[in-house]
Design brief:
Layout: H1 11-21, E1 26-29, H2 36-39, E2 47-50, H3 54-68, E3 72-76, H4 78-84, H5 86-95, E4 99-105, E5 132-134, H6 142-154, E6 160-166, H7 190-202, E7 206-210, H8 212-216, H9 220-230, E8 233-236, E9 252-255, H10 260-267, E10 272-276, E11 297-302, H11 305-309, E12 315-318, H12 321-331, H13 356-366, E13 372-376, H14 381-384, E14 395-397, H15 406-416, E15 422-427, H16 428-431, H17 438-443, E16 448-454, H18 459-467, H19 483-489, E17 493-496, H20 503-513, E18 517-522
């Protein structure tokens, strides 16, 4: 492997050129010595977003990719850095976030002796939560491997891909691969969609279940038209990481429960159920019983063959969502259903400690129109869908259940949408998995309001302990954490809001600040609604 001569390109220069062509000039990472050769001669038109933990880097990139609708580039440090990031890598896989993740490997000449910082079987380490993984056999194969990782990440279903790169490869000779495009949108056959349309035309009580795939395909407007044509009630798929249907719409009925009998009860009385871009169904707590109400006919439209393969009932149709919904609307014979009255919100009373309904009501009243919400507060997740807050293109959460996503995701969202305010609704327990990400928000002076929904512990765990009759479990309290002091130490403005009467004005001022602000908000820990 020789060094570049005059007129030849290095692996590093070739990869930089490739990244520029693919629109991946923002890099998220926390590097070490095995990444230094990649970083030297850093291009002036590139941006390296430093995080203080590798897991935060991946979460930032996840949100950045989802909002920006293009794969994001992540730079990690050998096996240790990748290991630190596995929790949020698992989330990115579940979120279908397209990521190109590269990690350093030791110098090729040293690999037989398993040196310090050596990554044993590096390509296997992140599996099964990457779509494709490789350590190229030769230095000159590195640019092509990164190009393939990008294309794999951007093929449906989207997700992360991984490349391990020996640190001396960056200085070797390699040409960038030829630029290519892969068009991955596809639509189901007219026959398959005609069967769905015929069932809906004959239905007396249709229902829709809408998931993240609808928002991912920018198909929410088509989902609204379909619901309005049918007069169908619409549920959000349980634990969805995106909002596929406006939740202040008169036809929106809330989020489906996370258990089998709860789903059946919510959908009882509906004869045709169409699940759009979501699992059938997303369960958390096991219950026995049927999967569907009696005599209900179910169809699933999804671009993910995995979701189709493990669906518990019905007919699954593998398709991109937007062209399928547009075709379905053309095939449907039903005319527009009667208009419904608008939903009303509000009525929660101020009280101390603050209740979750009042907190969410205040958020709804003070949230700027274009704001993006990043949420990781498990104890309020179900209640959130009752508040009429969530809108397509403006909500991200973790579909994995692994904590440490929401706070850094808000940073990735703010970087992907410059000038748009971001609200991070984060549980006190969740925030401690990635609290150091506040430093990155401060460095970029990002317009994020971090609301710590502080119930003094892991509130969702307390609820599930009661639901699952897990008596005698250890305490899930987290006393003594000073979130204001922690935020200030990272360069973020912060205050504790203990009086509910002060909260509306404080929220308005925080959004107007245009810089990161953290609000520690103690809430009534007795209010728990996990369904």
């Amino acid at each position: 492997m020789r060094q570049p001569q005059a007129g030849e390109m290095s692996v590093r220069a070739s990869v930089h050129a490739l990244m520029r062509e693919l629109g991946m000039t923002t890099v998220f990472g926390n590097p070490g010595s095995t990444e230094l050769r990649f970083l030297s001669g850093w291009p002036a038109d590139f941006r390296y977003v430093m995080a203080l933990h590798e897991g935060a880097s991946v979460a930032m990139a996840d949100a950045y990719a989802q909002i920006g609708r293009n794969a994001a580039f992540v730079n990690l440090h050998s096996a240790g850095g990748l290991g630190n990031a596995l929790g949020t890598l698992f989330t990115a896989y579940r979120n279908a976030a397209p990521l190109v993740i590269v990690a350093g490997q030791q110098t090729r000449a040293m690999l037989p002796s398993e040196p310090f910082l050596f990554a044993t079987d590096a390509a296997t380490f992140p599996k099964p939560y990457v779509k494709w993984s490789v350590e190229p056999a030769r230095a000159e194969d590195v640019p092509g491997a990164i190009a393939r990782a990008y294309h794999v990440a951007m093929e449906r279903p989207y997700g992360p891909a991984f490349v391990s790169i020996p640190e001396d490869d960056w200085q070797r000779v390699a040409e960038p691969p030829p630029m290519r495009r892969i068009e991955s949108e596809f639509v189901a056959s007219a026959e398959a969609l005609r069967a769905v349309a015929s069932a809906l035309d004959a239905s007396t009580a249709p229902a829709l279940v809408v998931g993240a795939g609808v928002d991912r395909d920018d198909a929410s407007d088509a989902a609204v038209l379909l619901a309005e044509r049918l007069g169908a009630r619409v549920w959000a798929s349980a634990l969805s990481g995106r909002c596929g249907f406006p939740e202040d719409h008169p036809l929106f009925a809330g989020a489906l429960p996370r258990e089998r009998n709860g789903v059946v009860e919510q959908l009882r009385g509906h004869d045709v159920i169409v699940v759009l871009g979501a699992p059938v169904f997303n369960y958390h707590v096991h219950k026995e019983g049927p999967f569907l109400p009696d005599r209900a006919n179910l169809f699933q439209l999804t671009d993910d063959p995995n979701l189709a393969s493990y669906a518990v009932a019905g007919t699954s149709i593998i398709t991109s969502l937007r062209p399928a919904l547009e075709a379905l609307l053309r095939l449907l014979q039903r005319s527009r259903a009667a208009a419904l009255p608008s939903r009303t919100f509000g009525g929660a009373f101020a009280g101390d400690p603050m209740t979750i309904p009042y907190l969410l009501q205040t958020v709804r009243e003070t949230l700027p129109p274009s704001a993006i919400i990043c949420e990781e507060a498990p104890s309020i997740h179900s209640t959130l869908h009752d508040a009429g807050l969530l809108q397509p293109g403006r909500y991200l959460s973790a579909t994995s259940g692994s904590l440490g996503y929401g706070l850094p995701a808000a940073i990735g969202a703010a970087l992907a949408a410059p000038g748009r305010p971001v609200l991070a609704l984060i549980g006190d327990g969740s925030s401690l998995y990635a609290i150091q990400a506040l430093w990155t928000a401060a460095q970029y002076a990002l317009p994020i309001v971090f609301v710590i929904v502080n119930n003094g512990g892991y509130g969702a765990m307390k609820s599930f302990s009661r639901m699952m009759t897990a008596g005698g479990a250890p305490s899930f309290e987290i006393p003594g954490v000073d979130f204001v002091a922690a935020a200030v130490s990272f360069g973020v403005r912060a205050m504790r809001v203990s009086q509910s009467a002060d909260f509306p004005a404080v929220m308005t001022e925080a959004f107007a600040a245009g810089v990161p602000v953290l609000l520690d908000v103690p809430i009534d820990a007795s209010f728990q609604k996990v369904r």
